[in-house]
Amino acid sequence: QVLDFYDQVLGLQRWMDEHTPYDNATGSRTIFGLEPGEGFHMVDFDDPRSGRALAERRSGKLKCVRFAAGARIEDRRDRSRAGCLGYSLYAWRVNDVEAMHRRVAASGATRVGDVLADEFGRRAFTFDAPDGYQWV
After folding, report:
1. Model confidence over 35-73: pLDDT tens digits?
2. How far lies 83's CA from each of 43, 80, 125, 134, in Å?
3. What are the backbone angles phi and psi of residue 97, rounded to the nearest 5°?
């Protein structure tokens, strides 16, 4: 339900939504430090203008990897903020920033800032998505 925000509010296109058990996570076991019995759930979101063919794809896919509440993986979302080493601020460019601001403010997002001029003079706002990640 938390990830519904990305397609229903931001308008991203959900391309993949699948659970990978430990036995099938051959490469990911090392990357994520999984223990036997632990798996993960991965959801991909993309620009809604992207197509399925390689030549029709756009850059900037958002990959969300979720772990079970009982997983022994350290939750580091408190460090996934702009200015933290190794993490970045997520950005989504829209044509009507005021309309998107209204949609985000009416959703489950928190810390929704005002629409202001950014460092490039473009109108923008920041918010925390329901899963805790910071966006502009």
Report:
1. 888 888 888 888 887 777 777 777 767 888 888 777 777
2. 25, 9, 17, 11
3. -65, -35
CA atoms within a 13 Å half-sphere pointing along the CA-CB vector of 69: 0
The answer to whether the beta carbons of residues 46 and 15 sit under 8 Å apart is yes
**DSSP for 42-53, written as a single string:** EEEEE-TT--SS
Cβ neighbours of residue 81 under 8 Å, at least 6 residues apart? 87, 89, 134
Please tell me the pTM assigned to this model.
0.75
pLDDT in tens, 9-37: 998 888 888 888 888 888 888 888 888 88
